[in-house]
């Protein structure tokens, strides 16, 4: 009997894209169900009653929540193809460490870039660039955080890469002069087939970002 794989998702979400990429990297067929986050479906509330957030992967009726937890689950269940996490325990621990850094240090300033203005926004820009520089230092001269292989940290970062253009335009700054090596890796990631198939048009993301900015910065 074939697996039933359903992904509860929201198209511009930098967290939803992580699950989409992982599924496509593994070649897993899945049904994507778009959520309205202002009017959440009974299925989402049933499958993620604690956080009530996307993405939720429903595999044969069983829910898995939180984006990088979902990615790790996908890697373990479909372990016979395209490994996402390294096999070495130390390297796996390092990958998890950097994913935690990404979501701890990038999420808040990334949100504040389009939610604030003036001094608050300038502080957010500084924190955002500082975090990206630390990540660039970790990346070093490797094509991907996973070395020669697109992996766990790259998937985590691609969610943010998909919002880079909107962040730059709303924050009136440029990432590439500050982090040219990281930007080269970002462009490499954004060209992968699994990513291209998972991304929506950058203009649509930018349009949404401007709408959100009007809501938060009256």
From TrEMBL:
Intracellular or extracellular location(s): Cytoplasm, Cytosol
Keyword annotations of the record: Cytoplasm, Detoxification, Transferase
Known catalytic reactions: RX + glutathione = an S-substituted glutathione + a halide anion + H(+)
E.C. number(s) listed in UniProt: 2.5.1.18
Keyword Transferase: yes
Pfam families registered for this protein in UniProt: GST_C_2, GST_N
Major subcellular site: cytoplasm
Residues of the GST N-terminal domain: 3-82
Ranges of residues in domain GST C-terminal: 88-212
Superkingdom, taxonomy of origin: Eukaryota
Job description of the protein: Is involved in the conjugation of reduced glutathione to a wide number of exogenous and endogenous hydrophobic electrophiles.
Family: Belongs to the GST superfamily. Tau family.
Name used for this protein in its record: Glutathione S-transferase
Species annotation: Camelina sativa
Organism placement in taxonomy: Eukaryota, Viridiplantae, Streptophyta, Embryophyta, Tracheophyta
Gene transcribed to yield this protein: LOC104751731
């Amino acid at each position: 009997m074939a697996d039933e794989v359903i992904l509860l998702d929201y198209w511009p979400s930098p967290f939803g894209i992580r699950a989409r990429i992982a599924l496509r990297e593994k070649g897993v067929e899945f049904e994507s169900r778009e959520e309205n986050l202002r009017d959440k479906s009974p299925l989402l509330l049933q499958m993620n009653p604690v956080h009530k957030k996307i993405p939720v992967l429903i595999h044969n009726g069983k829910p898995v929540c939180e984006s990088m937890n979902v990615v790790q689950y996908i890697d373990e269940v479909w372990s016979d193809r395209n490994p996402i996490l390294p096999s070495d325990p130390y390297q796996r621990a390092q990958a998890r460490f950097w994913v935690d850094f990404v979501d701890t240090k990038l999420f808040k300033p990334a949100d504040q870039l389009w939610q604030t203005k003036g001094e608050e926004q300038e502080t957010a820009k500084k924190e955002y660039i500082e975090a990206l520089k630390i990540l660039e230092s970790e990346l070093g001269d490797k094509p991907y955080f996973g070395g020669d292989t697109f992996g766990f940290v790259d998937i985590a970062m691609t969610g943010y890469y998909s919002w880079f253009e909107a962040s730059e335009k709303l924050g009136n700054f440029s990432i590439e002069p500050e982090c040219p090596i990281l930007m080269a890796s970002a462009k490499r990631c954004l060209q992968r087939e699994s990513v291209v198939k998972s991304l929506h048009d950058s203009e649509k993301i930018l349009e949404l970002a401007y709408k959100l900015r009007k809501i938060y910065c009256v």
